[in-house]
Amino acid sequence: MANRTDIFDLGRLGLSSGEGRHLDLTVSIDPLEFGGQRYQAVPSEVPAKLDVSRTTGSGWFLRLRFDARLSGPCMRCLEDAGKGDAIVVDSREVDQPGSDDDELKSPYLAGDDLDVHAWARDALVLELPTQIVCSDDCKGLCAICGENLNFADPEHAHEAPPDPRWAKLSELKLDR
């Protein structure tokens, strides 16, 4: 496994215009909060692939790729979501110094120092699904008793409450 890299000095690669390099890194990912819950990448340090290309005008084209699993509560059943599918991250950044276009300025580059740590976390957040679940077919919790429906008896059911529109009829006293 490659050494952990938080800040990478692109200048030390010595690339000239048109040259590129492929690097294998280990990136740490900080815990994050999503939907009021705390999630942690498992493991917290993930292997990543960084592709670096030098563009004309002393700019950079960068690509970061890694897979990560998140440990934290499933949004349906509250079990650990870490056994679900890995989140695949494939992020690209362009930095072209001197450009007036904000799309051509990477917030992760300061001179030749690339903040791989911040970029990896932000890229992971952008790839998160709308709901973090333990599996796509998670059944969640019973709305009435709170039982985990993934482990409940297939006949798990509750008597339906009476229709409130007919409630007054139950107060009728019929003489016999």
Descriptive account of the structure:
This protein has 176 residues and is mainly β. The chain has one domain (7-171). Helices cover 7% and strands 34% of the residues. The chain contains one helix and nine strands. The chain has one helix spanning 116-127; strands at residues 7-9, 20-28, 32-34, 37-42, 45-55, 59-71, 87-95, 109-110, 113-115. The strands form two sheets. Strands 2, 3, 4, 5, 6 and 7 form a six-stranded antiparallel β-sheet that branches. It is elongated, with a radius of gyration of 26 Å. The mean pLDDT is 88.
- Which descriptor suits the 3D outline? elongated
Give a count of the beta strands, DSSP E runs of length 2 or more. 9
User: Percent of residues in helical segments?
Assistant: under 10%
Query: Which ranges are low-confidence, i.e. pLDDT below 50, for 5 or more consecutive residues?
Result: none
Number of helices: 1
- Proportion of residues in extended strands: 25-35%
Sheet with the most strands, sense and barrel status: 6 strands, antiparallel
Order of helices and strands: EEEEEEEEEH
Radius of gyration, in Å, reads 26 Å
Oligomeric grouping of the chains: single chain
Question: Class by helix and strand content?
Answer: mainly beta
Kindly report how far apart the N and C termini lie.
85 Å
Number of domains in the coordinates?
1
- The chain-level mean pLDDT equals 88
Observed structural traits:
1 helix, 7% helix, mainly beta, 3-stranded antiparallel beta sheet, single chain, 176 residues, 6-stranded antiparallel beta sheet, 9 strands
List the helices and strands and how they pair.
Layout: E1 7-9, E2 20-28, E3 32-34, E4 37-42, E5 45-55, E6 59-71, E7 87-95, E8 109-110, E9 113-115, H1 116-127
Antiparallel strand pairs: 1-9, 2-5, 3-4, 4-6, 5-6, 6-7, 8-9
